[in-house]
Amino acid sequence: MSFASEYLDIAIVITFVALVAGQILSMIRLVLGPTTGDRILALDTMVINALGLVVLLGIFQGVQIYFEVSLLIAMLGFVSTVALARFVLRGDIIE
């Protein structure tokens, strides 16, 4: 085991803990959010944290399929956030 891989393992653990903490805090904001906008923002943040966790898992395991999965999660997260915000503002998604 080389010197650089030990630092990479430590960095992966620290990053994993930070992403999990962010995910938990976003879940709390999703439940307790006083306004609908706060809940939409928390849901979008949860998608971004999940995206980070998938990419981190791909780096940790050395499997490249996780990066393609992360692209799908990013696209679905963007579309769902836009659709939810549009529904809140206008009352319908498709005009």
Can you describe what's shown?
The chain has helices at residues 3-32, 36-61, 65-90. The chain is mainly alpha-helical and 95 residues long. Helix 1 runs antiparallel to helix 2 and helix 2 packs antiparallel against helix 3. The longest helix has 30 residues, at 3-32.
Q: Topology, please?
A:
Layout: H1 3-32, H2 36-61, H3 65-90
Helix pairs in contact: 1-2, 2-3
Question: How would you sum up this structure in a few lines?
Answer:
With 95 residues, the protein is mostly helical. It is built from three helices and no strands.
Protein traits:
95 residues; mainly alpha; 3 helices
The helix-and-strand class reads mainly alpha
Which sheet architecture does the biggest sheet show?
none
Helix content: over 70%
Number of E-type strands: 0
Radius of gyration: 17 Å
What is the succession of H and E elements?
Answer: HHH
Strand content: under 5%
Could you tell me the mean pLDDT? 90
Number of separate helices: 3
Shape: elongated
Regions with pLDDT < 50 over 5+ consecutive residues? Answer: none
The N- to C-terminal Cα distance equals 59 Å
